[in-house]
Amino acid sequence: MDRLFCFETKDSCVGILSGVEEFRRYRERMNKRILSSNNLGIKMFFALDTRAYEKGALDTKTKGMLDLVASMVLRCSDCIAYHAIRCVQEGVTDEEFFEALNVALVVGGSITIPHIRRAVEILDQCRDLQKKNKHPGLYAGNHLS
Amino acid sequence: MDRLFCFETKDSCVGILSGVEEFRRYRERMNKRILSSNNLGIKMFFALDTRAYEKGALDTKTKGMLDLVASMVLRCSDCIAYHAIRCVQEGVTDEEFFEALNVALVVGGSITIPHIRRAVEILDQCRDLQKKNKHPGLYAGNHLS
Amino acid sequence: MDRLFCFETKDSCVGILSGVEEFRRYRERMNKRILSSNNLGIKMFFALDTRAYEKGALDTKTKGMLDLVASMVLRCSDCIAYHAIRCVQEGVTDEEFFEALNVALVVGGSITIPHIRRAVEILDQCRDLQKKNKHPGLYAGNHLS
Amino acid sequence: MDRLFCFETKDSCVGILSGVEEFRRYRERMNKRILSSNNLGIKMFFALDTRAYEKGALDTKTKGMLDLVASMVLRCSDCIAYHAIRCVQEGVTDEEFFEALNVALVVGGSITIPHIRRAVEILDQCRDLQKKNKHPGLYAGNHLS
Amino acid sequence: MDRLFCFETKDSCVGILSGVEEFRRYRERMNKRILSSNNLGIKMFFALDTRAYEKGALDTKTKGMLDLVASMVLRCSDCIAYHAIRCVQEGVTDEEFFEALNVALVVGGSITIPHIRRAVEILDQCRDLQKKNKHPGLYAGNHLS
Amino acid sequence: MDRLFCFETKDSCVGILSGVEEFRRYRERMNKRILSSNNLGIKMFFALDTRAYEKGALDTKTKGMLDLVASMVLRCSDCIAYHAIRCVQEGVTDEEFFEALNVALVVGGSITIPHIRRAVEILDQCRDLQKKNKHPGLYAGNHLS
């Protein structure tokens, strides 16, 4: 089960990231639809995409930041939403998060500023959720950009 | 008359692609406004744009897929909406449609996935409309990206 | 005080650009949030960004058009909204505005057309506001893309 | 054996596309090097890339043009060199080739013109090679962008 | 006759911009080749491109800088070479040139720095040529990016 | 003194990365030229760029990989050359390097493959230099993309 944006205790989901919940449902529904097609190439790509973010020589936290910066400089809103949440899930601190954004801002220029705002907005929503729960934690299901 | 997203029988429009209707009206209204300006260069470009999609050595179905893939890798939502519908209008099958998306996905990377979702959503809406009508058919007026 | 999108008389703001007001508030709130972080690099970049649009060897009107064209070919909606309004504020005429759009359209291709529509929509809203007020004028606070 | 840019008779390679031969060797050597690494993800992506261009619901000629246009609007020189040759190999005529370029030019704008020149230069080199040989034909080994 | 990069006295060309001369010849030769094809759309686009840079509501100097900045943020080397020379031809001063580059740098980010270097190199070559000739002046033939 | 691409023992530079040495000299010369202009904005941006890569909440090794991936997906050859070398200097292992490339490949698509080849070529050159010297080590002077 994909409960990507869900903060959970041991037994249940105790908080939903309100602003992105609609996006999450749409994304989940459409990904299923796409994978139900007979196009093997697309299915393989989705598998490859999930795989790229698994722990290897680099840990998942570092990979989360690599994805966030790549999404920032390419200015993909949905990808940024996804990867910003992943970064929080992987334990990226606020200081680390802002430094990653700074790298993206310097490399990609002021054209990335609207997406900087979006990433910080999501960061703040995640922090709010974390404060509300005694046992904050995030569970990420299968990954797709 | 531009009735781009309208499924029609011989005499009347019998179905509207709900999700994109508002976009169509906005697009139509603004294109008129732009063409009402005195800028000859912009007018000529719009004519050139329409012309590029007419049948020549390549048929309009092939051109439709060329446009769809170009719009996908450049990640232009409105352009994708437009060209996905055009592809359906030109008789592109689901299998062909997904193969074109696969080319875009491999060339453009996971950053195109949000637009893959969008294109498939529109494809499904078009197929629904086609099923509802006994004489499915689409009439496209003048083209503008 | 940043009252970027506000047409004002000497004493008060007499008109708000309706369509973009929500965007303005969001933008203002998030910029403050970002600047409240401890990341000096981002703060310095924001200062640099503001500075780039101040009068120097080039006047602010010319710089406004440079920014508009750069935002157009990079297809950044929020940046276009911002810079289109700035161009009006700097006294760019309709003819000049459309010529700048034409340069962007020719250089950037039909993929920019959705953003051409957006820029013209904002231009028209600004002109409407200017007509409604006896003493049209715009005051722009600190700049951020 | 990868003899991508080689025109051949039944038994042997009878012509090499001079301008791109150095590129071909470099490309072939580095692809081997990359595939010799232990990174499974990259290997899988390369396989996926090859697969995307094989005949399916769409024939290889149509896919060749989809790739050419995608490479053009993303302005990737090496990719254009590769896909322009592939188009010739798949039997794309000059008229079809120029129409595909026109689509890319209109969608991508004048910024693609340097790559239009490059694509046409390669087309002409291919045609010259085809004229020199009694049994023109091209054999493409494994594909990688 | 297209003598774009040629500094001339009244009667003859007295200086060639060394570093870009080879590029100029290639460009001129290929443009002729492209225009010799039967593709009307491409011919019309080239005409449109030339037209976009002619004096209108905006003077050619301002348009030269708009093009330079657009080429910079899209990072097109050949386009930058062309438009940097045009800017010199149109009388853009060093201070104005650097301010335009600064706008491009801030909007487009550090990813544009390699092209900043290229633009300044060409600026310096143009200034050297201007110093060597008593009657500096540039004649630009038909324009194509 | 900027000796970016120089492998050194305690007392002297003992190896130069052959393939990129010419690039290094050009880059160094032009950066000096650019900084000699009177444009304060550009100078400040260069300072900001250097600053973004210094150790903060994130270490320089992680930042090196963030930059490499950002340069890869934006497909900037010079930037990739620079950041690939920096990664080696910061102690990135081959496995880590390839995983970072894989992230860029999946996010950015096959259009990045020519730059994957380039990055691996530079990695190999760096490893060769490191083997030749008993006390491998790299010293990087001021940073500019």
How is this structure best described in words?
Six copies of one chain form a homohexamer. Chain A is mainly alpha-helical. Chain A has one domain (5-131): AhpD-like. The first copy, chain A, contains six helices and three strands; from the N terminus they run E-E-H-H-H-H-H-H-E. In chain A, helix 3 packs antiparallel against helix 4 (77-89), helix 4 runs parallel beside helix 6 and helix 5 (94-108) packs antiparallel against helix 6 (113-132). Chain A starts with 5 loop residues before the first strand and ends in a 6-residue tail after the last strand. Chains in contact: A-B, A-C, A-D, A-E, A-F, B-C, B-D, B-E, B-F, C-D, C-E, C-F, D-E, D-F, E-F.
Notable features of this structure?
homohexamer; 64% helix; 145 residues; disordered C terminus; AhpD-like; globular; disordered N terminus; mainly alpha; three-stranded antiparallel sheet
Please, how many helices of chain A? 6
CATH superfamily of chain A: AhpD-like
Tell me about the largest β-sheet of chain A.
Answer: 3 strands, antiparallel
Quaternary organisation of the protein chains = homohexamer
- Global morphology of chain A: globular
What structural class do helix, strand and pairing data of chain A support? mainly alpha
Rg of chain A, rounded, reads: 15 Å
Largest interface: A-F, 31 and 31 residues
- Top-tier CATH class of chain A: Mainly Alpha
Approximately how much helix is present in the residues of chain A? 55-70%
* CATH topology term of chain A: AhpD-like
